[in-house]
Write a structure and sequence with these properties.
heterodimer; A: 157 residues; mainly alpha; disordered N terminus; B: 181 residues; alpha/beta; Glutaredoxin; two-stranded antiparallel sheet; 5 helices; 18% strand
């Protein structure tokens, strides 16, 4: 028991049998992370204002690249995505709010441009459809179970 | 007892109805092209632009310079494959006097002019949108795209992809001939 516990503690501390192996894995992980960061398409220097920079990053995540459709602006290298990043950057830099930028996009490209569409009559089904299906399914299941519970248990022959 | 039976029949019918509904919606979606995005510009005033003229870089082509009456704006570029496909048709439109204007999108001036010299120029005037700023105002996400603007300056239709006779006579012609919005 005592042996087991101490062995458990040792593996928890490092998880690796040797320090060298651990360091190698850590280095590989670090390399992967930095490589992913270097892969980011937007190579522009960050905006001076930290608040604006975080808004800009957030928008890049949430705005669809209209050419590639299943990529956001952050990941897309399409020429149109580059133009839109430039526009968004300019807007954010000149003090536009998140709502301003989203309205700008809605006016030009419609709800499709936003990965997090606004709540509007034509997006109600999108927002609440899945929930409604779950509620309906749970209700139906509860209905069936309750009815079966009321059924007499058949006697065994 | 008969009430219980009716309920059982309902429980059987509901999943079938749901299934049919899903088949219907999936069937409709099958026939739809997901790359066609509806334009929020339809029914709204055409976005304005003031850009250099392709064939006369000293001149400025403003959307306000367009003569009174309905007009057509075609977004094109020399790098655009679909533009080659529709060009013959645009040339025919130009010959019969359709007020066709061009927006040269993210193109090089030399490339664009060379392209027109090779294939002919159907446009009354061509705006140069080198950095793509005006195209964003029009919600352009590819070339070719063709907009129909009525006499009141309202965008009535946006066609994505090469324009052809079928779309033109069905959608564009009534507005161009009718004139009034």
């Amino acid at each position: 028991m005592g042996v087991k516990a101490s062995r458990f503690r040792r593996t928890r501390r490092s998880g690796f049998r040797s320090r060298r192996l651990r360091d190698a894995v850590a280095a590989a992980a670090l390399a992967l992370v930095t490589a992913a960061a270097a892969n980011a398409v937007d190579t522009e220097a960050p905006l001076q204002n930290a608040e604006q920079q975080s808004l800009y990053r957030k928008l890049l995540e949430e705005v669809r690249c209209m050419v590639c459709q299943n990529q956001n602006l952050k990941d897309s290298d399409a020429p149109l995505a580059r133009d839109m990043r430039r526009e968004l950057r300019r807007m954010v830099e000149s003090g536009a709010s998140e709502a301003d930028v989203k309205q700008f996009l809605l006016d030009r490209y419609g709800d499709f441009a936003l990965y997090r569409p606004r709540l509007a009559p034509n997006t109600l089904l999108l927002w609440f459809g899945p929930g409604a299906i779950v509620v309906f399914a749970l209700g139906a299941t509860a209905f069936v179970i309750r009815r079966r519970m009321k059924m007499p248990i058949p006697e065994e022959d | 007892m008969s009430g219980g039976r009716k309920r059982v029949r309902w429980a059987l019918l509901a999943p079938c109805a749901v299934l049919l509904l899903m088949v219907y919606f999936f069937g409709v979606s099958l026939g739809r092209d997901p790359s066609l995005v509806p334009s929020p510009l339809i029914g709204r005033p055409a976005p304005e632009f003031s850009l250099p003229e392709l064939l006369d870089p000293d001149a400025v082509f403003s959307s306000r310079d367009v003569e009174k009456g309905p007009w057509v704006l075609n977004v094109w570029a020399s790098w655009c494959a679909g533009c080659v496909v529709e060009h013959e048709f645009l040339m025919a439109l130009g010959r019969v006097g359709v007020p066709l204007y061009g927006l040269n999108w993210k193109d090089g001036q030399k490339d664009a002019i060379g392209w027109l010299q090779l294939r002919g120029n159907p446009y009354r005037a061509i705006a140069v949108d080198a950095d793509g700023r005006a195209a964003i105002d029009w919600g352009v996400y590819g070339a070719p795209e063709t907009f129909l603007i009525d006499a009141g300056g309202i965008v009535r239709h946006r066609h994505v992809g090469p324009l052809d006779g079928a779309v033109f006579s069905e959608v564009f012609l009534p507005v161009l001939e009718g004139g009034a919005p």
